[in-house]
Amino acid sequence: MTQRIPIVENILSANDRLAEENRARLDAAGVFAINIMASPGAGKTSLIEQTLPRLASLARVAVVDGDIATSLDADRAAAAGALASIQINTGGECHLDAVMLRGALEQLDLTKFDLLIVENVGNLVCPASFKLGTHKSILVASIPEGDDKPHKYPGMYRGVDALVVNKIDLLPYINFRMEFFTSGVQALNPDLITFPLSCRTGEGMDAWIDWLIQNVKRNS
Ligand code: MG
Ligand code: ZN
Fold first, then answer.
1. 7 CA distance to ligand 1 centroid (A)?
2. Smallest-distance ligand from the CA of 41
3. For the domain bounded by 4-219, which CATH number is listed?
4. Are strands 115-119 and 32-38 parallel, antiparallel or unpaired?
5. Ligand 1 centroid to residue 8 C-alpha, Å
């Protein structure tokens, strides 16, 4: 068992080097890139669907969708107005890595975009360990998942730059203790910028869009 640790470390450092190359490629083209992570069903694709029309006149957006199978999410991104949408089927892998993103970047003329949205595979564990080269990591949590997730998945909450709390329209119907949730987040990632919102009703979307636009402008 002791020999497995260095092997894993080597894989991760090779991934980190490729992530740096991806970052350099994005920076050279002036593209701001985000990596959206969440458990399955939290609303990553819905967030992208609701985000794209709101950015329509403000930023040129490409979407890269990671899934174990199907191109359903990339199809939804295209329908919602992504100028390009690329599906990465991971062939069973439960996360995206820097090699996979590099493959997607090679299919895009990055000079044509301001923002790249990467939707990671739905999984609250390993996506946090694999850097992609994106500028910001976004975690989407949702009310029906329960208020204990920061306590159970600390690695994911610790490593992200922004937190979207989706499905706040369901708060009246679900026993979700916001204080318990927030205390878990605060312990792991103090001052994490948080956007409570509902992709269904649109409540809270404006703050999220403003934050994205500010970052796109800063990076262009
Ligand atoms: Mg999805
Ligand atoms: Zn994985």
1. 31
2. 1
3. 3.40.50.300
4. parallel
5. 28
pLDDT (tens digit per residue) in 145-194: 999 999 999 999 999 999 999 999 999 999 999 999 999 999 999 999 99
Separation of alpha carbons 26 and 64, rounded Å: 14
Cα 22 to Cα 37: distance, rounded to the nearest angstrom: 18
> Could you write out the three-class secondary structure of 31-45?
CEEEEEEECCCCCHH
Per residue in 74-87, pLDDT tens?
999 999 999 999 99
Rg (CA), the chain: 17
Structure tokens at 72: 């359903």
Instruction: Give the domain ranges of the chain.
Output: 4-219
pTM over 0.90: yes
Dihedral pair phi/psi, residue 216, rounded to 5°: -60, -45
